[in-house]
Amino acid sequence: MEQYKGRIAILGSGNIGLSLAKGLVKSGYVQAGQICLTRRNASKLKTFEQQGFVVGSDNAAAVAAADIVVLAVLPQQLNLLLNEINPSVDAKKHLIISVASGVSCKDIRSKLNTEVQVVRAMPNTAIAIGQSMTCMATDNAATVHLEEVTRMFETVGSVVKINEDLMTSATALCACGIAFFLRAIRAASQGGVEIGFHADEALKMAVQTAKGAADLLLQMQSHPEQEIDKVTSPKGCTIAGLNEMEHNGFSSSLIKGIKLSAVKAGDLYTKE
């Protein structure tokens, strides 16, 4: 991968910010010294400082020294952060990347009072192992900047560009979705215990089976029903189990849960 020559500030170095920083360095996209990590208590970033990252608690100074600025705080903390960095933001120099749920590019620009280019990115917690599904959107960023953001987040998983009005939906399907699939795996492992396996065995079996199912779709590029048809024989045990789950609302409950999460995701940020 061609190395990025500029500097990156990651403001609010929680799980997502730190995972992105690790991915960018591990892939050779940048060296640790090109990334500044900030959080209110910078002493918690000691191990990252030892690895060569620049760390601190002064967000405005971090922005002033950077070319790309990643806003990685909670939506509830964003307005305070934007007020803090506003004097340091230069529309000609900076690209802003926001990972805050439910906050539009327009919202961010209205607080920064500038024509700065903003890209929204929505990764999920699998970013920690380089397996994120990151959705990104913009309303004003140049193609060259979108390509840069794509390159950045491809160091920690897959990236898809979507229309901005679908970003809260992406939050529900990809970010909240991690929890939904984890709960399905947990339920499968509990079923395994009920039919005779020890808890640790059942969990291992359910996890690997779920991983195999996902990899089948990714590598075969097939539809779930195609793969299901290969497992379901007439009067067989698989179709009996599937139909019992459907009679109890398996698919519809998952669909309803995703729809409700999308509604909630749109309400996380207040513009005041």
UniProtKB/TrEMBL annotation:
The text of the family note is: Belongs to the pyrroline-5-carboxylate reductase family.
> Domain Pyrroline-5-carboxylate reductase catalytic N-terminal spans what residues?
7-102
What EC identifiers does the entry list?
Answer: 1.5.1.2
| GO terms for cellular component | cytoplasm
Which residues of the sequence carry a binding annotation for NADPH?
A: N59
Give UniProt keywords alphabetically: Amino-acid biosynthesis, Cytoplasm, NADP, Oxidoreductase, Proline biosynthesis
Mind telling me which NCBIfam families this protein's record contains?
Answer: proC
Instruction: Show where the Pyrroline-5-carboxylate reductase dimerisation domain sits.
Output: 164-265
Q: Which Pfam families match?
A: F420_oxidored, P5CR_dimer
Reactions that this protein is recorded to catalyse: L-proline + NAD(+) = (S)-1-pyrroline-5-carboxylate + NADH + 2 H(+); L-proline + NADP(+) = (S)-1-pyrroline-5-carboxylate + NADPH + 2 H(+)
GO terms (molecular function) for this protein are: pyrroline-5-carboxylate reductase activity
Q: Which residues bind NADP(+)?
A: A72, V73, L74, P75
Q: Does the keyword Signal apply?
A: no
Q: Any idea what job this protein has?
A: Catalyzes the reduction of 1-pyrroline-5-carboxylate (PCA) to L-proline.
A Gene Ontology biological process in which this protein takes part is:
L-proline biosynthetic process
- To which pathway does this protein belong? Amino-acid biosynthesis; L-proline biosynthesis; L-proline from L-glutamate 5-semialdehyde: step 1/1
Q: Where in the cell is it found?
A: Cytoplasm
Q: What's this protein's name?
A: Pyrroline-5-carboxylate reductase
Task: State the source organism's domain of life.
Answer: Bacteria
What InterPro entries does the database record attribute to this sequence? 6-PGluconate_DH-like_C_sf (IPR008927), NAD(P)-bd_dom_sf (IPR036291), P5C_Rdtase_cat_N (IPR028939), P5CR_dimer (IPR029036), Pyrroline-COOH_reductase (IPR000304)
